[in-house]
Amino acid sequence: MATAAKVTDTPLFDQPVAKTEPAPLTVTGLTRSIKNVLESSFAEIIVEGEISGFSHNRSSGHRYWKLKDDGAQINCTFWKSRNTSFEIANGQKVVCRGRLSVYAVKGEYQFDVLQLRPVGIGALQLAYEKLYQKLGTEGLFDPSRKRDIPKFPKVVGVVTSGDGAAFHDIVSAIERRYPLCKVLLRAAAVQGIGAELQIAQGIRDLNRLPDGVRPDVLIVGRGGGSLEDLWCFNEEAVARAIFASTIPVISAVGHEVDVTIADFVADLRAPTPTAAAELATQDKNELLQSIHGAKNILSAVVYRYFDDVHYDLEHRIGVKAIGQSILDQLAGYHQVIGRSRQTMVAKLQHYFELHKLKIAKDQSSLAALNPLNILDRGYALVRQPDGQVISSAKDFPDTAEVLLKDGSVIVRKG
């Protein structure tokens, strides 16, 4: 009897599994993918290092160097259209703001520098002195070009950080002194490399507003800090924006001992932001005292005039000549004057009461419109890196700043 063959699931031969090989990338395609990843991931970066291998292409005007430290180096480009307030040289330690870019033709990446500033007190002081001499020679500090600050502004424009103490101080001082005046904030970064561009743009934006909305005076500044913190107010971009402003500018940078290039160009320098608000507005209590004083003087002049007329009629012409009927008329005139005075006083008091009510209403409106109060209620403000407010999802950039009541965060488009 034949034995049935044993069935086994062990294959007699190992059969290779066929695999589909991916299509090869082109060099251009690979480089384009690398370019997209790098440039989107490093669209806004700040790097500190030492300059070496600096070169200036005289025909194109572009400048090139390597930014290095002890462990690495990166090629940098600085195009002709970009300016700096100091002379770039090998061996300088600098902080650069820019973006990473890929040069596809050579398969190289490089740092596209937008702005840079020197590192260290000595280097900053040297840059300060060179820019001061340059702008002074051009006449930006000339006292003859400085304009008077309007006495009764309807709108005060402020270029500063919206969540900083300086803005709080300015608003509080104006509400206390001259609440009929409105405060218009153009928020801008006031510290770090690149802040000078936001400040300069804020000044230009307020100047471009239409009549009825455009401020009568600008306050540009921030609270105190180190020389590095305040450095953006020593940049040429801010100085030229102040110089070009058609609106008078009050600078308010740091504390009383801090002096910046912006202070020399501005129409008026204030030692602090609070002092700037006081220089930009009148004190309502002093104004009311002046009005009351003028009212009393006017009343005294009117009474004195009619008393003189009455005296002339009684004593120069004589009672017998004018008769009792004239004296009766004078008595009637005197009563009319008394009633007119009472009416005038009542109207002035009514006028003051109306303005007091308007002041109270404007104070309430200012408090309701204060962007900081809105943030306290849970809202947030989304801005582009240059400070422009984002109001639509289609305008959302790769990187944005979200301002909350207790600070801000940087977000990226997911």
Write a brief structural summary:
With 414 residues, the protein is an alpha/beta fold.
Find the structural class using helix and strand composition.
alpha/beta
The shape, in one word, is: elongated
Q: Extract low-pLDDT stretches.
A: none
How does CATH name the architecture of the largest domain? 3-Layer(aba) Sandwich
Spatial order of the strands in the main sheet? 1-2-3-5-4
Q: What is the strand and helix layout of this fold?
A:
Blueprint: H1 27-41, E1 45-56, E2 63-68, E3 73-78, E4 93-103, E5 108-118, H2 121-138, E6 155-160, H3 165-177, E7 182-187, H4 195-207, E8 217-222, H5 236-244, E9 249-253, H6 261-265, E10 268-269, H7 273-280, H8 284-317, H9 319-369, H10 371-376, E11 381-383, E12 399-404, E13 407-412
Parallel strand pairs: 3-5, 6-7, 6-8, 8-9, 9-10
Antiparallel strand pairs: 1-2, 1-4, 2-3, 4-5, 11-12, 12-13
What does this structure look like?
A hairpin with a 4-residue loop joins strand 2 and strand 3. The chain is α/β, with parallel strands linked by helices and 414 residues long. The mean pLDDT is 82. The protein has four domains: 90 residues, Beta Barrel (OB fold (Dihydrolipoamide Acetyltransferase, E2P)); 138 residues, 3-Layer(aba) Sandwich (Rossmann fold), CATH 3.40.50.261; 86 residues; 41 residues, no CATH class. A five-stranded mixed beta barrel has the order 1-2-3-5-4. A five-stranded parallel beta sheet has the order 7-6-8-9-10. Strands 11-12-13 form a three-stranded antiparallel beta sheet, with no helix packed on it.
